[in-house]
Amino acid sequence: GKSFLKSNLELLKNKSLLLAMIPWMFFALGVTVIQSSLIYYFKYILDSEDSFPYALIALLTSSLVFIPVGR
Questions:
Q1: Is 14 in a helix, a strand, or coil?
Q2: 3's torsion region: left (phi>0), alpha (psi -120 to 50) or beta?
Q3: Model pTM?
Q4: pLDDT band per the 50, 70, 90 thresholds, residue 1
Q5: Which of 35, 57, 56, 38 is nearest to 46 (CA)?
Q6: How does pLDDT run across 32-62, given as a tens digit for each residue?
Q7: Which one, of 20, 14, 35, 33, lies nearest residue 67 by Cα?
Q8: 58/63 Cα distance (integer angstroms)
Q9: Is the sign of the CA dihedral 46, 47, 48, 50 positive or negative?
Q10: 9, HSE (Cβ side, Cα atoms, 13 Å)
């Protein structure tokens, strides 16, 4: 069989996959940056660290809902 590296390098030749993966990577990066910033915002700006999980749920829910909108 093919090695793991060769199989993954073959995937990079698939233009359809790349066209789907590149926007998804930017989406994941954006959500991660916002999520990381939220904890500091709630802890130091709002002084309400206990509210962070609710904001996180709102962020992740809205990001999932709007995935089809970006297509």
A1: coil
A2: beta
A3: 0.64
A4: low
A5: 38
A6: 999 899 999 999 999 999 999 999 999 889 8
A7: 20
A8: 8
A9: positive
A10: 5
Report pLDDT digits (tens) over 11-33.
Answer: 889 999 988 888 889 988 988 99
Q: How far apart are CA 19 and CA 21, in angstroms?
A: 6
Instruction: Report the pLDDT value the prediction gives residue 71, as an integer from 0 to 100.
Output: 60
Q: Which residues contact 67 (CB under 8 A, 6 or more apart)?
A: 27
Residue 70 has pLDDT above 80, yes or no: no
Token pair belonging to 45: 């700006």
- Tokens 């990079």 locate to 12
Q: How many other CB atoms sit within 10 Å of the CB of residue 43?
A: 14
How many helices (H) and strands (E) would you count in the chain? 3, 0
